[in-house]
Each structure stands twice: as C-alpha cells, then as structure tokens.
Design a protein that fits this description.
By secondary structure, the chain is mainly beta. It has a single domain, classed as Metal Binding Protein, Guanine Nucleotide Exchange Factor, Chain A. The chain has one helix and eleven strands, in the order βββαββββββββ. It binds zinc ion (ZN) (2 copies).
Length: 142
C-alpha cells in the first residue's frame, strides 16, 4: 500500500487525503482558474473520489464552468485557500488544487487545457499536449 497523498489549506484548518495517486494532472487556463490562481493557470490534480477523506469545514461556491458543467468549488472559509472542485456530472472524480498538496511534486502537469483563454504573456510549455478549450476526453482512467 503506497503512502497516502495528503494536503491541506494554508491555515491548517482543513486537511485531506487520498489513498491512490491522481488519475490526471494538468494546467488549466480557463478564466475561472485564473481567478483562483492570481492570474496564472491553475495546476489541477484529478483524483478518484473513492478514497477521499477530509477533516475541517470547507465552504462551497457553486457556479457553471466554462465547460458548461455545474461545479462546486470548495475553499477554506478561514484562510481562503482553494482546495477542490467537483462537477455534478462526474461524482466519481474531483479536482484538487495542486497548491494545497503537501508534496506538489506529484502534480507535475501532463497537459495544458483552455489555452484559448490564456493571456499573451502566459508561459505555456511547448512540450506538453494542449487544448484550446475543454478536452473532449474525460481524464484517463488507470
Ligand atoms: Zn485554512
Ligand atoms: Zn480551469
């Protein structure tokens, strides 16, 4: 059994863990993610929800994403750290904001999405596959 993947918010009120590594990791340049990441792309790790555990209270913000999905974004109500995003259409998977992981090394991105809404000064890695909007395929299953 590998070590669990753990993380939490800046103030420490919220802690979470997953027993299994992420299904996918990617940088998202949608406008929602730019709001969450001080203007940068957001590094997102997508996990299966099956082994998700969390302690501490999170606050939720519901909205419709650029992809059209109804999203529930969770953050720490005390320090404001963005933590998770879940889609009502995909209850089996969830997005974790890589900045909240104790070891951000595990979130090395494997693709870039929503490059079409990135600003002209964005640093886009030409080595990574990219998509101008939401990729057609959902995150790969392992
Ligand atoms: Zn906090
Ligand atoms: Zn995004």
């Amino acid at each position: 059994m590998p070590d669990p993947i753990t993380g939490g918010c800046l103030c420490g009120a919220v802690r979470f863990s997953f027993a299994e590594p992420p299904l996918a990791t990617r940088i998202c340049w949608c406008r929602d993610c730019q709001h969450l990441s001080s203007g940068n792309g957001s590094v997102n790790a997508i996990f299966a929800t099956g082994t998700f555990a969390v302690t501490g209270d999170v606050a939720d913000f519901r909205s419709r994403a650029a992809s059209g999905n109804a999203m529930r974004r969770s953050f720490c109500p005390r320090c404001g750290t963005p933590l998770f995003a879940r889609s009502d259409d995909r209850p089996d998977a969830m997005v974790v904001r890589a900045g909240a992981l104790d070891d951000p090394e595990i979130a090395r991105p494997h693709s870039v999405i929503w490059t079409g809404s990135a600003p002209s000064w964005a640093c886009l890695d030409p080595e990574l596959p990219s998509s101008p909007g939401q990729p057609a395929a959902t995150p790969p299953r392992s």
